[in-house]
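Appendix B, example 12.
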Amino acid sequence: MISAILPVYAPPNLSFERGEGSYLFGSDGRRYLDFGSGIAVTALGHAHPHLVKALQEQAAKLWHTSNLFKIPGQQKLAQRLVDATFADTVFFTNSGAEAVECGIKMVRKYFDDNGQPERYRIIGFEGSFHGRTMATLAAAGNKKYLAGFEPNVDGFDIVPFNDLPALKKAIGPETAAILIEPVQGEGGVRPVPPQFLKALRDLCDEHGLLLFLDEVQSGMGRTGKLFAHEWAGVTPDIMAVAKGLGGGFPVGACLATEKVGQCMKPGNHGSTFGGNPLAMAVGNAVMDVMLKDGFLEDVRQKANHFRQQLSMLADKHPDVIEDVRGSGMLMGLKCKKANTALVDAMRERGMLAVTAGDNVVRLLPPLTVSESEISEGIDIIDAACGSLNG
Protein backbone atom coordinates (compact mmCIF):
# COMPACT_ATOMS: atom_id res chain seq x y z
CA MET A 1 0.00 0.00 0.00
CA ILE A 2 1.35 3.41 -0.94
CA SER A 3 2.10 5.83 1.88
CA ALA A 4 0.06 9.00 2.40
CA ILE A 5 3.20 10.93 1.41
CA LEU A 6 4.21 10.20 -2.19
CA PRO A 7 7.23 7.89 -1.77
CA VAL A 8 9.81 10.02 -3.60
CA TYR A 9 11.97 10.47 -0.49
CA ALA A 10 13.79 7.89 1.60
CA PRO A 11 14.71 9.74 4.82
CA PRO A 12 16.18 8.09 7.93
CA ASN A 13 13.82 7.57 10.84
CA LEU A 14 14.54 10.99 12.28
CA SER A 15 12.57 14.21 12.60
CA PHE A 16 13.19 17.44 14.45
CA GLU A 17 11.18 19.33 17.02
CA ARG A 18 13.04 22.63 17.07
CA GLY A 19 16.16 24.42 15.92
CA GLU A 20 18.43 26.98 17.50
CA GLY A 21 21.33 28.59 15.67
CA SER A 22 23.58 25.84 14.29
CA TYR A 23 21.70 23.04 16.03
CA LEU A 24 18.61 20.91 15.48
CA PHE A 25 16.91 19.00 18.28
CA GLY A 26 15.60 15.62 17.19
CA SER A 27 12.55 13.59 18.08
CA ASP A 28 15.06 11.05 19.43
CA GLY A 29 16.03 13.50 22.17
CA ARG A 30 19.46 14.25 20.70
CA ARG A 31 21.03 17.53 19.62
CA TYR A 32 22.55 17.64 16.12
CA LEU A 33 25.07 20.07 14.70
CA ASP A 34 23.45 21.05 11.41
CA PHE A 35 26.01 21.33 8.61
CA GLY A 36 23.36 20.60 5.99
CA SER A 37 21.31 23.75 6.63
CA GLY A 38 18.29 22.27 4.87
CA ILE A 39 20.45 22.05 1.71
CA ALA A 40 21.91 25.56 2.00
CA VAL A 41 18.61 27.16 2.98
CA THR A 42 18.93 28.12 6.66
CA ALA A 43 21.84 30.42 5.89
CA LEU A 44 21.40 32.35 9.16
CA GLY A 45 20.82 29.29 11.28
CA HIS A 46 17.61 28.15 12.93
CA ALA A 47 15.17 30.54 14.61
CA HIS A 48 17.32 33.62 13.98
CA PRO A 49 15.68 36.24 16.23
CA HIS A 50 15.57 38.96 13.56
CA LEU A 51 13.88 36.64 11.06
CA VAL A 52 11.47 35.29 13.67
CA LYS A 53 10.44 38.81 14.66
CA ALA A 54 9.92 39.89 11.04
CA LEU A 55 7.76 36.86 10.26
CA GLN A 56 5.69 37.15 13.43
CA GLU A 57 5.03 40.85 12.93
CA GLN A 58 3.99 40.34 9.30
CA ALA A 59 1.88 37.25 10.12
CA ALA A 60 -0.15 39.34 12.54
CA LYS A 61 -0.92 41.89 9.82
CA LEU A 62 -1.29 40.33 6.35
CA TRP A 63 -0.41 37.03 4.70
CA HIS A 64 -1.61 37.17 1.12
CA THR A 65 -3.20 39.43 -1.46
CA SER A 66 -1.81 37.98 -4.75
CA ASN A 67 0.07 39.99 -7.34
CA LEU A 68 -3.15 41.56 -8.56
CA PHE A 69 -2.22 44.29 -6.09
CA LYS A 70 1.03 46.01 -5.16
CA ILE A 71 3.04 44.44 -2.36
CA PRO A 72 5.28 47.06 -0.70
CA GLY A 73 7.72 44.44 0.62
CA GLN A 74 8.43 43.37 -2.96
CA GLN A 75 9.48 46.84 -4.02
CA LYS A 76 11.77 47.12 -0.99
CA LEU A 77 13.44 43.73 -1.46
CA ALA A 78 13.69 44.10 -5.25
CA GLN A 79 15.39 47.49 -4.89
CA ARG A 80 17.87 46.09 -2.37
CA LEU A 81 18.74 43.22 -4.71
CA VAL A 82 19.10 45.63 -7.62
CA ASP A 83 21.34 47.93 -5.58
CA ALA A 84 23.54 45.02 -4.47
CA THR A 85 23.89 43.28 -7.87
CA PHE A 86 24.19 43.69 -11.63
CA ALA A 87 20.40 43.55 -12.01
CA ASP A 88 17.85 46.20 -12.91
CA THR A 89 14.69 44.19 -12.25
CA VAL A 90 13.48 41.23 -10.17
CA PHE A 91 10.65 38.69 -10.35
CA PHE A 92 9.81 36.82 -7.12
CA THR A 93 9.03 33.12 -7.03
CA ASN A 94 8.52 30.41 -4.41
CA SER A 95 11.54 28.26 -5.27
CA GLY A 96 14.79 27.98 -7.15
CA ALA A 97 13.29 25.86 -9.91
CA GLU A 98 10.64 28.51 -10.54
CA ALA A 99 13.33 31.18 -10.67
CA VAL A 100 15.23 29.18 -13.30
CA GLU A 101 12.00 28.60 -15.25
CA CYS A 102 11.38 32.33 -15.26
CA GLY A 103 14.88 32.87 -16.63
CA ILE A 104 14.34 30.29 -19.36
CA LYS A 105 11.17 32.12 -20.43
CA MET A 106 13.04 35.43 -20.40
CA VAL A 107 15.72 34.00 -22.71
CA ARG A 108 13.15 32.89 -25.26
CA LYS A 109 11.08 36.06 -25.03
CA TYR A 110 14.15 38.26 -25.43
CA PHE A 111 15.15 36.70 -28.73
CA ASP A 112 11.56 36.49 -29.97
CA ASP A 113 11.11 40.21 -29.29
CA ASN A 114 14.33 40.92 -31.14
CA GLY A 115 13.17 39.14 -34.27
CA GLN A 116 15.16 35.95 -33.73
CA PRO A 117 12.63 33.36 -32.53
CA GLU A 118 14.80 30.59 -33.95
CA ARG A 119 17.33 31.33 -31.18
CA TYR A 120 15.87 29.43 -28.26
CA ARG A 121 18.44 26.79 -27.31
CA ILE A 122 20.34 26.99 -24.01
CA ILE A 123 23.69 25.33 -23.39
CA GLY A 124 24.11 23.66 -19.98
CA PHE A 125 26.79 21.53 -18.35
CA GLU A 126 27.19 17.95 -17.22
CA GLY A 127 26.83 17.59 -13.47
CA SER A 128 24.55 20.59 -13.14
CA PHE A 129 21.27 20.75 -11.24
CA HIS A 130 18.61 23.38 -11.84
CA GLY A 131 15.46 21.91 -10.30
CA ARG A 132 12.83 19.21 -10.76
CA THR A 133 10.45 20.75 -13.29
CA MET A 134 10.43 19.32 -16.79
CA ALA A 135 12.37 22.24 -18.28
CA THR A 136 14.92 22.50 -15.46
CA LEU A 137 15.56 18.75 -15.64
CA ALA A 138 16.21 19.07 -19.36
CA ALA A 139 18.47 22.06 -18.73
CA ALA A 140 20.71 19.89 -16.54
CA GLY A 141 20.49 16.79 -18.72
CA ASN A 142 21.14 14.37 -15.85
CA LYS A 143 20.01 10.96 -17.10
CA LYS A 144 19.41 9.77 -13.53
CA TYR A 145 16.74 12.41 -12.97
CA LEU A 146 15.33 12.33 -16.50
CA ALA A 147 14.77 8.56 -16.61
CA GLY A 148 11.09 7.75 -16.95
CA PHE A 149 10.06 11.29 -17.83
CA GLU A 150 10.92 11.31 -21.53
CA PRO A 151 10.53 12.84 -24.01
CA ASN A 152 12.74 15.61 -22.72
CA VAL A 153 11.76 19.24 -23.16
CA ASP A 154 13.46 20.51 -26.32
CA GLY A 155 15.89 23.38 -26.37
CA PHE A 156 18.84 22.32 -24.25
CA ASP A 157 22.33 21.18 -25.23
CA ILE A 158 24.64 19.70 -22.59
CA VAL A 159 28.43 19.90 -22.77
CA PRO A 160 31.16 18.60 -20.42
CA PHE A 161 31.97 20.67 -17.34
CA ASN A 162 34.83 23.17 -17.76
CA ASP A 163 35.41 22.17 -21.40
CA LEU A 164 35.77 25.35 -23.42
CA PRO A 165 36.41 23.69 -26.82
CA ALA A 166 33.25 21.56 -26.44
CA LEU A 167 31.29 24.65 -25.47
CA LYS A 168 32.49 26.62 -28.48
CA LYS A 169 31.58 23.72 -30.75
CA ALA A 170 28.06 23.57 -29.31
CA ILE A 171 27.28 27.21 -30.15
CA GLY A 172 25.14 27.39 -33.27
CA PRO A 173 22.62 29.65 -35.03
CA GLU A 174 19.85 28.51 -32.64
CA THR A 175 21.85 29.12 -29.45
CA ALA A 176 20.40 31.79 -27.19
CA ALA A 177 22.11 31.46 -23.81
CA ILE A 178 24.57 29.65 -21.58
CA LEU A 179 23.30 28.44 -18.19
CA ILE A 180 25.73 27.55 -15.42
CA GLU A 181 26.09 27.30 -11.64
CA PRO A 182 29.23 29.13 -10.44
CA VAL A 183 29.63 26.26 -8.00
CA GLN A 184 27.95 22.97 -8.80
CA GLY A 185 26.30 21.80 -5.59
CA GLU A 186 24.31 18.68 -6.39
CA GLY A 187 26.88 17.77 -9.02
CA GLY A 188 29.66 17.30 -6.48
CA VAL A 189 30.61 20.72 -5.09
CA ARG A 190 32.67 21.73 -8.13
CA PRO A 191 33.56 25.43 -8.41
CA VAL A 192 33.75 26.81 -11.92
CA PRO A 193 37.26 28.27 -12.42
CA PRO A 194 37.11 32.10 -12.61
CA GLN A 195 38.85 32.09 -15.98
CA PHE A 196 36.17 29.79 -17.37
CA LEU A 197 33.37 32.10 -16.20
CA LYS A 198 35.23 35.01 -17.80
CA ALA A 199 35.50 33.02 -21.02
CA LEU A 200 31.75 32.38 -20.94
CA ARG A 201 31.06 36.09 -20.61
CA ASP A 202 33.38 36.80 -23.55
CA LEU A 203 31.73 34.10 -25.67
CA CYS A 204 28.27 35.48 -24.89
CA ASP A 205 29.38 38.96 -25.90
CA GLU A 206 31.01 37.65 -29.07
CA HIS A 207 28.00 35.63 -30.21
CA GLY A 208 25.20 37.81 -28.85
CA LEU A 209 24.17 35.24 -26.25
CA LEU A 210 22.79 35.74 -22.74
CA LEU A 211 24.77 34.57 -19.72
CA PHE A 212 22.36 32.93 -17.26
CA LEU A 213 23.70 32.05 -13.81
CA ASP A 214 22.01 29.67 -11.37
CA GLU A 215 23.05 30.96 -7.94
CA VAL A 216 20.27 29.18 -6.07
CA GLN A 217 22.77 27.28 -3.91
CA SER A 218 25.96 29.33 -4.32
CA GLY A 219 24.35 32.71 -3.69
CA MET A 220 23.31 34.71 -0.63
CA GLY A 221 26.71 34.80 1.03
CA ARG A 222 27.41 31.09 0.74
CA THR A 223 30.88 31.57 -0.81
CA GLY A 224 31.81 34.65 1.21
CA LYS A 225 30.52 37.19 -1.28
CA LEU A 226 26.84 37.94 -1.75
CA PHE A 227 26.99 35.97 -5.02
CA ALA A 228 29.66 33.53 -6.16
CA HIS A 229 30.17 35.06 -9.62
CA GLU A 230 31.58 38.18 -7.95
CA TRP A 231 34.82 36.27 -7.31
CA ALA A 232 35.38 36.07 -11.08
CA GLY A 233 34.50 39.72 -11.72
CA VAL A 234 31.86 38.85 -14.30
CA THR A 235 28.24 39.94 -14.56
CA PRO A 236 25.41 37.83 -15.96
CA ASP A 237 22.33 38.93 -17.88
CA ILE A 238 19.98 36.72 -15.83
CA MET A 239 20.41 35.10 -12.41
CA ALA A 240 18.27 32.69 -10.41
CA VAL A 241 18.33 32.97 -6.60
CA ALA A 242 16.51 31.15 -3.80
CA LYS A 243 17.46 28.97 -0.78
CA GLY A 244 19.33 31.37 1.53
CA LEU A 245 17.25 34.35 0.35
CA GLY A 246 14.43 33.24 2.64
CA GLY A 247 16.53 31.74 5.41
CA GLY A 248 14.06 28.86 5.60
CA PHE A 249 10.93 30.53 4.23
CA PRO A 250 10.13 29.52 0.62
CA VAL A 251 11.20 32.37 -1.64
CA GLY A 252 13.12 32.66 -4.88
CA ALA A 253 13.92 35.41 -7.34
CA CYS A 254 14.89 35.84 -10.97
CA LEU A 255 17.12 38.86 -11.52
CA ALA A 256 17.77 40.43 -14.91
CA THR A 257 19.26 43.42 -16.67
CA GLU A 258 16.97 46.02 -18.18
CA LYS A 259 17.95 44.81 -21.66
CA VAL A 260 16.44 41.42 -20.91
CA GLY A 261 13.72 42.31 -18.43
CA GLN A 262 12.01 44.88 -20.63
CA CYS A 263 10.87 42.09 -22.96
CA MET A 264 8.48 40.84 -20.27
CA LYS A 265 5.09 42.56 -20.35
CA PRO A 266 1.90 42.17 -18.26
CA GLY A 267 0.52 38.68 -18.81
CA ASN A 268 3.84 37.15 -19.94
CA HIS A 269 4.53 35.56 -16.56
CA GLY A 270 3.08 35.39 -13.08
CA SER A 271 2.75 33.63 -9.74
CA THR A 272 -0.10 33.40 -7.27
CA PHE A 273 2.10 33.07 -4.19
CA GLY A 274 5.42 34.47 -5.42
CA GLY A 275 6.54 37.50 -3.44
CA ASN A 276 3.73 37.31 -0.89
CA PRO A 277 3.96 39.60 2.18
CA LEU A 278 5.27 36.85 4.48
CA ALA A 279 8.09 35.89 2.12
CA MET A 280 9.04 39.50 1.52
CA ALA A 281 9.18 40.27 5.24
CA VAL A 282 11.59 37.40 5.81
CA GLY A 283 13.63 38.14 2.67
CA ASN A 284 14.11 41.71 3.79
CA ALA A 285 15.12 40.51 7.25
CA VAL A 286 17.73 38.23 5.67
CA MET A 287 19.11 41.17 3.70
CA ASP A 288 19.23 43.27 6.88
CA VAL A 289 21.67 40.75 8.33
CA MET A 290 23.71 39.93 5.23
CA LEU A 291 24.23 43.55 4.17
CA LYS A 292 25.57 44.64 7.55
CA ASP A 293 29.15 45.85 7.50
CA GLY A 294 31.54 43.02 8.27
CA PHE A 295 29.07 40.14 7.87
CA LEU A 296 30.51 38.70 4.66
CA GLU A 297 34.07 39.39 5.78
CA ASP A 298 33.36 37.32 8.89
CA VAL A 299 31.98 34.53 6.69
CA ARG A 300 35.15 34.55 4.61
CA GLN A 301 37.40 34.36 7.67
CA LYS A 302 35.49 31.44 9.15
CA ALA A 303 35.37 29.72 5.76
CA ASN A 304 39.15 29.90 5.42
CA HIS A 305 39.55 28.34 8.86
CA PHE A 306 37.00 25.66 7.98
CA ARG A 307 38.79 24.73 4.77
CA GLN A 308 42.17 24.54 6.51
CA GLN A 309 40.75 22.18 9.11
CA LEU A 310 39.10 20.01 6.46
CA SER A 311 42.39 19.79 4.55
CA MET A 312 44.11 18.59 7.70
CA LEU A 313 41.43 15.91 8.08
CA ALA A 314 42.02 14.79 4.50
CA ASP A 315 45.73 14.41 5.26
CA LYS A 316 44.90 12.44 8.40
CA HIS A 317 42.36 10.13 6.73
CA PRO A 318 43.58 9.52 3.16
CA ASP A 319 41.74 6.19 3.04
CA VAL A 320 38.42 7.99 3.54
CA ILE A 321 38.81 11.50 2.07
CA GLU A 322 40.26 11.80 -1.43
CA ASP A 323 39.88 15.54 -1.91
CA VAL A 324 38.54 18.73 -0.32
CA ARG A 325 36.75 21.05 -2.72
CA GLY A 326 34.35 23.95 -2.77
CA SER A 327 34.15 27.63 -1.95
CA GLY A 328 33.36 29.49 1.25
CA MET A 329 30.75 27.67 3.29
CA LEU A 330 29.89 25.39 0.38
CA MET A 331 32.43 22.63 0.88
CA GLY A 332 32.69 19.04 -0.29
CA LEU A 333 34.60 15.97 0.80
CA LYS A 334 35.30 13.68 -2.15
CA CYS A 335 35.17 10.22 -0.59
CA LYS A 336 37.11 7.06 -1.38
CA LYS A 337 34.37 5.01 0.27
CA ALA A 338 30.63 5.54 -0.10
CA ASN A 339 29.65 9.10 0.76
CA THR A 340 26.51 7.75 2.41
CA ALA A 341 28.67 5.81 4.86
CA LEU A 342 30.42 8.99 6.00
CA VAL A 343 27.14 10.91 6.26
CA ASP A 344 25.65 8.08 8.35
CA ALA A 345 28.73 7.92 10.59
CA MET A 346 28.54 11.68 11.14
CA ARG A 347 24.84 11.53 11.97
CA GLU A 348 25.44 8.74 14.49
CA ARG A 349 27.84 11.14 16.22
CA GLY A 350 25.43 14.08 16.20
CA MET A 351 26.16 15.96 12.98
CA LEU A 352 24.14 16.43 9.79
CA ALA A 353 25.54 16.74 6.25
CA VAL A 354 24.25 16.20 2.71
CA THR A 355 25.38 13.84 -0.05
CA ALA A 356 26.17 15.11 -3.54
CA GLY A 357 27.17 13.67 -6.89
CA ASP A 358 30.65 12.34 -7.64
CA ASN A 359 30.64 10.53 -4.26
CA VAL A 360 30.92 13.79 -2.32
CA VAL A 361 29.71 14.78 1.14
CA ARG A 362 28.40 18.35 1.11
CA LEU A 363 29.08 20.55 4.13
CA LEU A 364 26.86 23.62 4.34
CA PRO A 365 27.10 25.16 7.80
CA PRO A 366 25.01 28.25 8.53
CA LEU A 367 26.90 31.45 7.74
CA THR A 368 26.43 32.39 11.39
CA VAL A 369 28.34 29.31 12.62
CA SER A 370 30.92 30.03 15.33
CA GLU A 371 34.55 28.92 15.28
CA SER A 372 33.86 26.68 18.28
CA GLU A 373 31.03 25.02 16.36
CA ILE A 374 33.34 24.55 13.38
CA SER A 375 35.83 22.87 15.72
CA GLU A 376 33.05 20.67 17.07
CA GLY A 377 32.15 19.69 13.53
CA ILE A 378 35.75 18.92 12.63
CA ASP A 379 36.04 16.65 15.69
CA ILE A 380 32.89 14.77 14.66
CA ILE A 381 34.07 14.33 11.06
CA ASP A 382 37.41 13.16 12.39
CA ALA A 383 35.74 10.53 14.57
CA ALA A 384 33.43 9.48 11.73
CA CYS A 385 36.38 9.06 9.36
CA GLY A 386 38.19 7.06 12.04
CA SER A 387 35.26 4.67 12.27
CA LEU A 388 35.49 4.05 8.51
CA ASN A 389 39.26 3.47 8.38
CA GLY A 390 40.51 -0.03 7.71
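The chain has two domains: 16-46+295-388, 50-290. The chain is about 35% helix and 20% strand.
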